[in-house]
Fold:
Amino acid sequence: MDVTRTVGLDRNDVIAAAKSIYSLVLLLLLWEFVAQYDMVHSYFLPPLSDVLATFYELTADGTMLEHAYLTFRRAMAGLLLACLLGIVVGVLAARNRIMGWFWDPIIEVGYPVPVIALVPVFMFWFGTGDLSKIMLVAVGCFWPVAINARNATREVDENLVWSARMMGTSDRRLLRRVVVPAAAPGIISGVQIALPIALIVTFVFEMVAGGGGLGHLEIQGVRSFESAQVYASLIAIMIVGFTLDRGLRYLRGRLLVWT
Amino acid sequence: MNRTQTHRQHPSNAESAHETMVDGHVTITELEKVYESGDERTTAIEDFSVTVPSGEFLGVVGPSGCGKSTLLYLVAGFLEQTTGTIAVDSDPIDGPGTDRGVVFQDYALFPWRTVMGNVTYGLEEKGVGKEKRQATAQRFIDMMDLDGFEDKYPKELSGGMKQRVALARTLAYDPKILLMDEPFGALDQPLRESLQDHLIDIWRELEKTVIFITHDVEEAVYLSERVLIMTRHPGTKKTTVNIELDRTQPREELVLSDEYTTTKNDVWQSLREETTPGGEH
Ligand SMILES: Nc1ncnc2c1ncn2[C@@H]1O[C@H](COP(=O)(O)OP(=O)(O)OP(=O)(O)O)[C@@H](O)[C@H]1O
Ligand SMILES: [Mg+2]
Structure:
């Protein structure tokens, strides 16, 4: 990755950014216009200005932050757990025959399962609390992390491993010294793929099971016919997702300056 | 060509013949390597014996696919032979070891480490302290004309620079034996020549045993004290040719000298027999 592309901005980037915002602004204006002139019932689509006012109110009285924090905490805890397990399993499955024999079929089958379908199951087993949510997030994020870690590890250039061994790196230290650093770009890609999954699972679980969080706030808006709250929650989750994605990209750039 | 040289040399005979073999000699005895993948068996090396006395610069040439890389990786300990033995200083090798250092054709630098980080790697693994490590590494970085590039990552370097880093990295942890697999194959002529001269200087100064694989006859003759010619697939030792050149003269004169031209032609002819269909063997 070219560092200048993520940090500095050149002329083309600025123009591109302006253009993308331009179309977005146009859409938002259209939204305001359509809603203001009652072309759509305000229950379905309240004017943007109402949504922003509600967003502001909820933020000012701390409600929004409280819910955003709950969602953020669950998603991050689950993602972190998935990263710990997924990276270990993925790397070992690629480097160790027995681990590969055990995990390869599980990863192949587990990866495409739509994890949202497990929300009710987890409610049965583990209830509706934080632990249940975090665990399901971890399950959902585990697969992309593990599969990317495994594939990246498999693709590590054998010559790098040989180089290290000839310079005296023992088999035990090989993973930490060479395999994981060499596979790091692929491993981090897996984490980036898992991030939106973490948010989706958290959000849906909160909608279904409550217990606070932005998903809960949104569905509450539906149940109390507060459609402005529904859209305000949506904006909040978008901000959370966007921020986390940027944060991860920044981290990637810092960790992988050498790529 | 002296065909008697193709006969197997028993280590005991060979050893008594070279009194100088103290440290870093390689003895390969009746080596055979068969690759097995599924039902397919490919014999890459067979009936291969040679002794490389300590401090020798041995060039290895052979037709493409004859098993040169396989031979080198066997000596490095990366691959396991099917039969036969490879011994360094009379001890059979068991996997890779810091007594041997490989310089790969595609450099195989650690991309996440800077030039300095790459060159210090072997010393870190040896447990050398930070200051000593840096000082030793700096010596080899300077030797390779890489000073000023210590903090660059491999992706920021040209091919020739990468190859010099690879050489510095291997030299820094001080293996007795250098194993080089077409290290300059991907470089353009002037760069290749400058690195060749560099390598000769280093070999003289550091007194390493070198096994240098190349498909370039001129390179082999220019660098080596002895050139080993391999037969075509499956590879075995065809013959070895001693190179006796007056190394005191500059390159321009040396490559025009009669000895150089004659030896080069000898090696070239011998190799040609292996590359032309219906040739000898
Ligand atoms: N991993 C492998 N599995 C099966 N066969 C192999 C393997 N590696 C090499 N071979 C075969 O062994 C023979 C020798 O290969 P090797 O790479 O050692 O040749 P080489 O002399 O280095 O060739 P080149 O000059 O093209 O680099 C070839 O016939 C090749 O097809
Ligand atoms: Mg080769």
The mean pLDDT of chain B is 87.
